[in-house]
Amino acid sequence: MDLKGKVAYITGGTKGIGYGIAEVLLKHGMKVAISGRKIEDAEKSASSLSSNPDEVLGISSDVTKLSDEKNAIEVILDKWGHVDVILANAGVGHFAPIDELEDDKWQQMINTNLNGVYHTLKASVEALKQAKGYYITLASLAGTNFFPTAAGYNATKFGVVGFTQAAMLDLRPYDIKVSTIMPGSVASHFNNNTPSDSDTWKIQPEDIGELVVDLLKMHPRTLPSKIEVRPTRPDKKK
Ligand SMILES: NC(=O)c1ccc[n+]([C@@H]2O[C@H](COP(=O)([O-])OP(=O)(O)OC[C@H]3O[C@@H](n4cnc5c(N)ncnc54)[C@H](OP(=O)(O)O)[C@@H]3O)[C@@H](O)[C@H]2O)c1
């Protein structure tokens, strides 16, 4: 894909991985819409990404609601006329042994991480058909490795990997590419982390952005459908 002038929509782009991907896509000449639950946060992050309103847009959308995601796609089409790349990135993680995991935390993870990627795809699939575009989900290594305290999070990310792979089979006849990226530890605000010097061993959000660019630039005949990515060296303290 020639990236210049192409339009990307990144759910949950106000901070963390989504924000890092937005920075990199803008550097490559793309136009980028980011979303978050609060309009003031989405607009603030959009204006710190770029002072040029022709190339960036902040949208309020809660991915747990299909109507919000439909509205987000309409707003993007009104502004730019097409949407070529979707990053279904918004996600939350709550970690506790299953007997202690609170019901509302389970529901929030299922509604955001799993129902959210479904809502984003349902809202954008006709536009992606028009654009012969690319739909990418941010799953996790927790979508293939299970661990204690992660029953809820594992359930969502295993679900995202299965959803994305099956959707890939459904959509490739339309020349829509579909991939899932499965990162290990990334320096972001995930799970109440504040990125700091002790996070330098982790993948940085812009590294995921560079990976997205590699995927977008891959020859049209070739599709890496599932990408595991991890820190080269694990945390020395562990
Ligand atoms: N960090 C890691 O180590 C890691 C590893 C593997 C996978 N991941 C996955 O990567 C994705 C991004 O996480 P991150 O690490 O960047 O976390 P983060 O720094 O906490 O950012 C999460 C983003 O999701 C948005 N968000 C949360 N709930 C939302 C909702 N209901 N609707 C719309 N946006 C929502 C937040 O925006 P607002 O707060 O502004 O709404 C924020 O922009 C997640 O799917 C996560 O599971 C993270």
From TrEMBL:
- The lineage's top-level taxon is Bacteria
Q: Which PROSITE patterns match?
A: ADH_SHORT
- Cross-referenced InterPro entries: NAD(P)-bd_dom_sf (IPR036291), Sc_DH/Rdtase_CS (IPR020904), SDR (IPR050259), SDR_fam (IPR002347)
User: Known Pfam families for this protein?
Assistant: adh_short (PF00106)
Q: PANTHER family of this UniProt entry?
A: 3-OXOACYL-(ACYL-CARRIER-PROTEIN) REDUCTASE, 3-OXOACYL-[ACYL-CARRIER-PROTEIN] REDUCTASE FABG
Q: Which family does it belong to?
A: Belongs to the short-chain dehydrogenases/reductases (SDR) family.
This protein is called SDR family oxidoreductase
